[in-house]
Amino acid sequence: MKFTDLNPKREIGAHSLLVDVGEFRLLIDGGMSPKDVGLACLPDYTRIAPDSVDLIILTHCHLDHIGSLPCIHRSQPSARVLMTPASREILPVMLQNSYTVMLKQRDEKEVEEYPLFSRSEADAIDLDVFAMHFGRTREFVKNGEHLRITFYPAGHVMGAAAVLLEHGGKKHFFTGDILFRRQHTLNGAQIPTMQVDTLVTETTRGLAEHSANFTYEDEADRLLESVAKALREGGSCLLPVFALGRMQEVVTLICEARHRGILPRNFPVYCSGLGLAVVDVFEKIGRNGKKYGLNYTAPDRISPPVLQNLGHRLAPEGEMVFRKRSLNALNVRPLPRSRVKAGIDIRRSSLFVMSSGMLVENTPAYQVAASLMPFSHNLIAFTGYCDIDTPGGKLLGQAPGDIFRFETLEFETPIRARVEHYDLSGHADREDLLHLAKVMNPSSIVLSHGDGNARKWFEGALTMALPAARIFNPEPQETYEI
Ligand SMILES: [Zn+2]
Ligand SMILES: [Zn+2]
Fold this sequence. Notes:
By secondary structure, this protein is of the alpha/beta class. 28% of the residues lie in helices and 20% in strands. β7 (138-142) and β8 (145-153) form a beta hairpin. One zinc ion (ZN) is lined by residues 60, 62, 156-157, 177.
């Protein structure tokens, strides 16, 4: 197998992997970096000749995996685009939103090259989609060679797939973004026990350390207690989240907490538009769970440490529990953006569950943060991964009282609101990925989708755990024979 990481930087962002196996040329994901602007946010597609890719595989619909899909699809007219039926439903919503955001940025930030694709180019992907159900192997033939591909549920977010390629008697496994733990709105990864030759693993949480008795449920309760305290004291709360997946999970947590009496009753809840649009698609998928393979369970599932430590309040295995009624019960409404102004406090104590999760400029979360930050009764609570170069990452690195500058709003303020971080990540803990590697016992391991230091941790830990394996921490844009 030949492997090239097309992400120009060794970090999470413009995720895209070019994979050559025998006669087949595959592209896995076509992402876009959330913190860069213009052409700088793209993977390096310049090394892919026009019409040379046979299959584009989409693992899931976060922007760092799909944001540039129409750009590469445009130059690869013969490529089939493989994704799960659930991703097929979600993809157009995400791409159309991305298109709208780019149009806005073209005017606000004077980015001439935006939008990077047209609406019709985004829509055209669907014509080439080949839907892949979990656990059903498909075989592709080219020049007499056979390539077998199987998708397995990766947890993480609705429709997310881990991918197994079988070619020439070898097995190559790609985790994609993966989570073994069950969430309140989605089952965990279902990966059958198997031995593989190559493991390509995400490394997002290489630097995330937990105490031995950490549980997701306790962490969620800690967050909810903090939110309750702020609301009872007359403050407002901002929870910056990814619109796809995390927003629905957090809204479900809040709904349950209010039901259990942990949160006060009468406070308005606001969500941003994309998160609400995704909810409608989730509802459709949830109502037809079987059709979308939500009930798939892997035989002899790989069971990393986190699965032995599950919280008692989670839904029974096999049930997908996100329902629009959580939104209705909370009377969730879209953000009245005109009523939110930098430096002016929200008059009524409110809860904002807003994208972006990393507080990227000009997003609803960014705007609300600029309103809440100067006032000590307010709370800004992050629940997931923040790149250190994004406003969210920078804010988490600052101390109370420091000056925080909202660049694009030309506004700065001392940090007076409480700023906290809760570890409710949608990515697997590093120990779980180590367990996966040990079970799969590959002869080669490729590190991807993580910051430099996170990959370093995996490099060290995997070398210790699997001394016979070759570990690749690939340079961006370089091709490796694996
Ligand atoms: Zn993701
Ligand atoms: Zn990702």
